[in-house]
Design goal:
11 helices; about 375 residues; binds zinc ion; about 20% strand; alpha+beta; three-stranded antiparallel β-sheet
């Protein structure tokens, strides 16, 4: 729909006479163009002496690119996208977007290592404009623009209909076609401020969390050196499952007893039920209820928020909520072939084979 006139400017098909009298060439390959303006077909340019079935590869894209630059340079106005950083309710809006008028435009001028399609200037400020016809602005170019800290936008012309009218084409380029910021110095500033706020918040949390972390580490050391206090452990040993308890998962410091005790308490009943043919079910909720009934939870660590938990973990401290500790232990037992996952990460059953072996051992003992 576009051709290059002899003076180098771009012509829309609607502006030229039919046939070779259009006096245009292809801006990509330099071949003379024929304006085909029949009644039936969409009006279009063809390469002279070349059938329509073998069109020039890059002609239409090159022409559209050139036309877009020309329109911007002539009109010196552009609708800019809004500039905002999405961050919760206090969303930062650097620029609401809208029409912007410029003082001058420079086409294809070199700027350091890059050659933007157009640089427009308003007073002392410059804006880089890239037109996307077939290829989006690549990462390397965006990185260079970022390194220079220049404002830059990309206008996407890839979805325009082939037979678009001249007024619609100008309107799409300047106003309606999708456009986005590739870079903006204000975004960097907002980013820096956001990072500063995060660092300050982290510091406050780190200071508040230090005593909690020390207490937790002391609790871990304490429970790991504790003697066994519960009879369930003996039942577990009797069933040759000693390897299934005493597993040091993150969160063991949330309990007041050795990991062997609380893990044996949960596992022993389930294995007993499974060995007698029942469904040996373990749930995190049920397990925590049993542990709480015995007073085996440390109040200080059983009601922490996820944020506090993450802050304690930040230096690698193996902390987790009691429910997650139970789940991590049960998950380990699934890998050991003692339990089978039976729900959304919060329920398990004693593996049939484990229970079967139990029964087998009991029977052989009785014989
Ligand atoms: Zn061509």
């Amino acid at each position: 729909m576009l051709g290059e006139r002899t003076d180098g400017t771009m012509a829309h098909i609607s502006e030229v006479t039919s046939g070779l009298g259009c006096n245009c060439v292809c801006p990509a390959c330099g071949t003379r163009l024929v304006a085909r303006k029949g009644n039936k077909q969409d009006h279009h340019f063809g390469h002279y002496g070349v059938g329509d079935g073998r069109p020039c590869q890059t002609g239409p894209e090159t022409a559209l690119h050139k036309f877009a630059k020309e329109v911007l340079a002539r009109r010196l106005e552009l609708v800019l996208p809004s500039l905002e950083a999405a961050e919760g309710p206090g969303k930062w809006v650097g620029y609401p977007g809208g029409i912007c008028h410029f003082d001058a435009a420079y086409l294809e001028s070199r700027l350091g290592e890059i050659v933007p399609d157009v640089i427009v200037r308003k007073a002392e400020r410059h804006l880089l404009v890239e037109f996307l016809v077939t290829h989006a602005c690549d990462e390397a170019k965006i990185a260079r623009i970022g390194a220079m800290d220049m404002a830059a936008i990309e206008i996407d012309l890839s979805g325009l209909p082939r037979n678009i009218s001249r007024p619609d084409l100008e309107n799409a380029i300047l106003t309606t076609a999708p456009r986005q910021w590739l870079h903006n110095p204000k975004l960097r500033e907002a980013q820096a401020q956001r990072e500063k706020r995060h660092r300050e918040r982290d510091l406050v949390l780190r200071r508040a969390v230090a005593p909690l972390r020390r207490a937790y580490m002391a609790a871990c050391a304490e429970v790991c050196s504790m003697p066994i206090s519960c009879l369930a452990y003996n039942r577990i040993v009797g069933r040759h499952l000693a390897h299934a308890v005493g597993i040091e998962v993150p969160g063991i410091g949330c309990f007041t007893v050795s990991p062997r005790d609380w893990q044996a308490l949960i596992l022993a009943d389930a294995v007993d039920i499974a060995a007698s043919g029942g469904k040996g079910l373990i749930t995190t909720a049920g397990a925590l209820r049993k542990i709480r009934e015995r007073g085996w939870l440390r109040r200080r660590f059983s009601r922490l928020t996820d944020g506090e938990a993450a802050a304690i973990r930040a230096d690698g401290t193996p902390f987790d909520h009691p429910a997650n500790a139970v789940a991590a232990w049960a998950t380990t037992l699934s890998r050991l072939g003692v339990l089978l996952p039976a729900g959304a990460g919060d329920r398990w059953i004693v593996w049939q084979l484990t229970a079967g072996q139990m029964r087998g051992r009991q029977t052989s003992k009785r014989l």
